[in-house]
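SEQUENCE-TO-STRUCTURE ENTRY
===========================
Question of interest: how does this chain fold, as expressed in backbone structure tokens?
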Amino acid sequence: METKLLKFLSSKSINIKGNIFRQNKYLGLKKTDNLNRLILKLYFLVIELKLNSKLYKLSDNGFLDFNDHFLEINKKKISSDKLISLLDYKKIQERINLSKKKVVLEIGSGSGRFSQTFLTFSKNTKYIICDIPPSIYINYTRLKKVFKNKKIKLCFECKDYKSLAEDLDNNDIIFIFPHQIKMFKEKFVDLVIAIDCIHEMDKSTIKYYFENINNFSKLIYFSVVKETRVPLSSMFKFNSNYLRSSNRDDYQIPKNWKLIDQSSLYFPENYDGIFYKINKN
């Protein structure tokens, strides 16, 4: 996962001040040391990619509310989540003009590390978050704390497109459950984002998401591990979902989706970031 990262940084020299050997009592000495080294490598990469101004705009509220391990570098608290989320954001921004996307749907947002990053820099975007408990409530609590001036609503009671659209009009961020994406109408969403989650789903769930996204979105970006088997997706291990990012059929990509780009992430490098333009059927 770090081969290219190390090669990229091998000739770099960056001055830092701070406690780069900070220990974490929950991880133990060896695991803490490994994590500290990773944070430093990712920090150097973020500086090299000229993302340091964005890094310092990410609030500790949210990023350091989950007992996250961090290093204090140049008087700033730096966690791996901050750094990796910035690299994810840059990956998308390289291919898509995010400032022009009025409505964005994020699937599988987890605790909200990327949601917080995206909303920090894309202030005028209407943001829909689709997930399941308990993650969705963790993210809701996080964003309420970080973005106190934004209108945020749980929309689990919406039962039709009209009520969902009204809630989106009247709020900046809304939260929904997966079954509710069936309510969306054609081109309702400008961009769907799914980071580090699609490859955890069984094939019937992937099919459900992609078939519905095909009906209401213009673009999709998702990041997945390049090759994996999904545990517990079958009674027998040998028959579990085998997913390769290089194979459209494994992910049941609709035929009308046009590949814009597929390439390795900055980190982890055994992941691909994949962009598709969704053409009309």
Remarks:
- DSSP finds nine helices and 13 strands in the chain.
- The longest strand covers residues 257-264.
